Amino acid sequence: MKYGIAVRTLCEFTARQGDLDLRFTPSPTAQQGIAGHQQVAARRRAGYQSEIALQADFGPLTVRGRADGWDPALQQLEEIKTHRGDLARQPANHRHLHWAQLKVYGWLLCQARGLAEVRLALVYYDIASGRETVLAEVHGADSLRVFFEEQCGRFLAWAEQELAHRQARDAALAALAFPHADFRPGQRMLAEAVWRAAASGRCLLAQAPTGIGKTVGTLFPLLKACPGQRLDQVFYLAAKTPGRTLALEALRLLAGGTGDGQPLPLRVLELAAREKACEHPDKACHGESCPLARGFYDRLPAARAEAIGLPAQDRAALREVALRHQVCPYWLGQELARWADVVVGDYNYFFDATALLHALTAAQERRVALLVDEAHNLLERARGMYSAELDEAQLLALRRQAPVALKRPLERLARAWRGLQRDQADTYAAHDELPGPFMEALQQAAAAVADHLAEAPAQPPGELQQFCFDALAFGRLAETFGTHSLFDVTLRQERGRTRARVCIRNLIPAPHLAPRFAAAHTATLFSATLGSAAFCRDTLGLPADTAWVEVNSPFVADQLAVHVVREVSTRYADRGRSVAPIVRLMARQWRERPGNYLAFFSSYDYLRQVAGPFADAHPEIPVWQQSPGMRESEREAFLARFVAGGSGIAFAVLGGPFAEGIDLPGERLVGAFIATLGLPQVNPVNERLKQRLQQAFGAGYDYAYLYPGLQKVVQAAGRVIRGPEDRGVVYLIDDRFQRPQVRGLLPRWWQVDTGRAPPSAKKEGADVD
């Protein structure tokens, strides 16, 4: 059995040394790097060859890669590296790694073409000036072969360990048994669909109700498929911490045994956010500032070897290992992502523009599978990933404290910023094209700040660094600007002055996400509220052959009474008139069946409009409310009041933390009132979104307003029935819920009563009118 490894991966394992040092970064973007390579190649003479595919074997290793360029006239093999600024500031260990890569490519070329010697050239291309710096050396084939074999020899023991692990892992997964006595209703249907998608190499959209065990129901079949489909890794991606926690718990359950009492040889890694894993947030990421960056690569091998043997590489366990070896926990986790079988992390680790897991997949040519939990969140999260904002107030604060060397580029940017406001009469304006003068000034200011930061090694992270990161992120999105996005300017008054916030706002993330899905062998996106297959395919960029399955609910209509209160309108203009009938309805239902209820509203303002009169009219009914910006302890206290045998009504905002992802089974929650369709606010941004979606897909209103709104409604209603023994009631308060178009987006197992008043109201008269 052969172990395939990319040249870059091999050298990063064997030739990295010294400090972790990010001062020569942020490096040029991927687009800038590609353009730089193309520019260098365009300057070369006729016959120059780019992207030379090479590979060679060493024992069980197959080392492969693509050399950047070959000039047959000079017999020169080139490794092209794009950079920005003074090359003298490049850390020595970066260049050491670049030479190692080039020497390995040199041997691969000599072996492939029978060369006795070759001229190796490191070509550093400055994207700002267009200047090349060429460092060249002539090496004989024999010395390059020795260097190649040394690198392979250093990796060989690890490769043999990896091969043995892979064989043991695949054998165990082939024999893996379902961890429970039987599947839950609907769970088998979901598991079979995931298996079929993996077997056919397709993507799958699975609309599956809460309560069937979706986490185990997706992980189990995908792990079983790994041996037959030769899957290298499974990435479980979630939007929120509870989803990742459930995945880790399910994986611990699955890894607990293989039927013969032996634990499953499965490496499970939890990727934590940088701000949560960083031990020294007040320090910069280099050895002169952070002690955990000093000598990082010298201590990494021992830390990696210990961590790889952990039964679970979760955040707490990695921190313990990292601190024992005095390395950064965050960057240790990034390294272990190369060697894990299952990685559990946030959406951004695969879908973001600079996503680690996607980059590793592409660089190492791995066969990976994706599980995207609560996938109804991916659309808005992806829009955020491919949007960027800059606020003029940030620039003004920066100018006041900036060093003299930065005054001129920051002043030029300030003038360009003021120019955006000059002809704008309205508070908000959207543009289909980027403003050239502003973008040029921004690029120059960001480059100047980046150069300054690189020359200030002891300077801790601060406003300058944040501005640099924000500006470069803005510039990266500008490189791919198109009909999927717009450029908008929002004006506000601050201390008598007009200030502008500029935004590259992504509206349709499909063009950005499509290459991500194409890179995976299979992907399953699952949620109780996907909306429709066409909506997901269009907006997320899924392949045309993506499969769709709607899993039968384990619940029956008798468990949940669903009433549409069609005599009430919750439209903005009608909210004042809606308060009294909503108050009477809620009080009547509580008297009929005392217990814990959640009442959802479209905004905090509407929530307070109803909560105040309710508390005044019915002081005997306990009431508690969600408030803006609640801390974690406050959210926990809010949920702690939902106890079995308790009674009261909690007021919350639809789409907030209490509308999805919380579990209140049995008597902890017996009903919900939803006084809104959840439609996004009608404002200039959403209206532009509707226009763009109409142009692209002919479904502007549905895609911009209706589907996102009803997803929130169904998620909120889903808090009521969590298990087979639960019984409850949901009131959908708005006349629009009776429309066929709206009804078609509600769960099929609901039997919705659209009578003039719910049964309890009919007994007492039609005072809900």
Automatic annotation (TrEMBL):
Gene Ontology MF: a single term: metal ion binding
One Pfam assignment: DEAD_2
Q: Where is the Helicase ATP-binding domain?
A: 173-446
The cross-references to SMART domains, in alphabetical order and at most eight, read: DEXDc2, HELICc2
PROSITE patterns to which the protein is assigned, alphabetical: HELICASE_ATP_BIND_2
Q: Tell me the keywords, alphabetical order.
A: 4Fe-4S, ATP-binding, DNA damage, DNA repair, DNA-binding, Helicase, Hydrolase, Iron, Iron-sulfur, Isomerase, Metal-binding, Nucleotide-binding
Q: Which residues cross the membrane?
A: none
**BP terms from Gene Ontology:** DNA repair
What protein family is recorded?
Belongs to the helicase family. DinG subfamily.
Q: Mind telling me what this protein is named? A: ATP-dependent helicases-like protein
Q: Which organism is it from?
A: Ramlibacter tataouinensis (strain ATCC BAA-407 / DSM 14655 / LMG 21543 / TTB310)
Q: What is the lineage of its organism?
A: Bacteria, Pseudomonadati, Pseudomonadota, Betaproteobacteria, Burkholderiales
